């Protein structure tokens, strides 16, 4: 998980999460809706991060947590404000940069290791039987 319920509460406050997720007449966070949004965002982040880094990550870098929090916030809002939409757009741009290798997470990348040059080599002589050597019989 790139972000948790507690991360969202710390950033936006419990009251705002209740307002964004609760059904009419309820006065509590709709855990199902919040969990679905977090799972969806985790899948999106995994798809981008997997282009450069082996999953699962050993630890969640702070930049991924901020990205996840901003995208979840935008996804649970039925009518997001322009600022919320811009935050999500910026987060998606950061994910694209991570997947292209333009932005590093400070972790070991998933790039192939260079192979050693001291490998066995095979050599063979030229063909014994060829059209030129057999006078056209082959």
β-strand percent reads: under 5%
| Radius of gyration of CA atoms, rounded to a whole number | 27 Å
Largest sheet geometry = none
Number of strands: 0
SSE order: HHHHH
Mean pLDDT: 88
What structural class do helix, strand and pairing data support?
mainly alpha
**Helical stretch tally:** 5
The percent of residues in helical segments reads 40-55%
How far do the termini sit from each other?
67 Å
Q: Based on CA inertia axes, which overall geometry fits?
A: elongated
Low-confidence stretches: none
Fold and architecture overview:
Helices cover 50% and strands 0% of the residues. It contains 5 helices and no strands. The protein has helices at 5-12, 14-21, 31-49, 62-76, 82-100.
Keywords:
mainly alpha, single chain, 138 residues
Tell me the layout of helices and strands.
Elements: H1 5-12, H2 14-21, H3 31-49, H4 62-76, H5 82-100
Helix pairs in contact: 1-2, 1-4, 3-4, 4-5
In a few lines, what is going on in this structure?
With 138 residues, the chain is an all-alpha fold. It has 5 helices and no strands.
């Amino acid at each position: 998980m790139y972000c948790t319920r507690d991360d969202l509460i710390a950033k936006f406050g419990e009251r705002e999460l209740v307002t964004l997720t609760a059904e009419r007449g309820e006065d509590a966070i709709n855990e199902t809706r919040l969990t679905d949004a977090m799972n969806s965002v985790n899948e999106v982040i995994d798809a981008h991060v997997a282009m450069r880094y082996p999953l699962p990550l050993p630890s969640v870098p702070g930049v991924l947590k901020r990205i996840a929090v901003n995208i979840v916030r935008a996804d649970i809002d039925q009518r997001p404000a322009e600022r919320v939409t811009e935050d999500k757009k910026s987060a998606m741009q950061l994910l694209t940069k991570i997947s292209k290798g333009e932005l590093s997470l400070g972790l070991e990348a998933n790039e192939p290791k260079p192979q050693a040059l001291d490998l066995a080599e095979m050599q063979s002589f030229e063909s014994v039987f060829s059209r030129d050597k057999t006078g056209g019989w082959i």
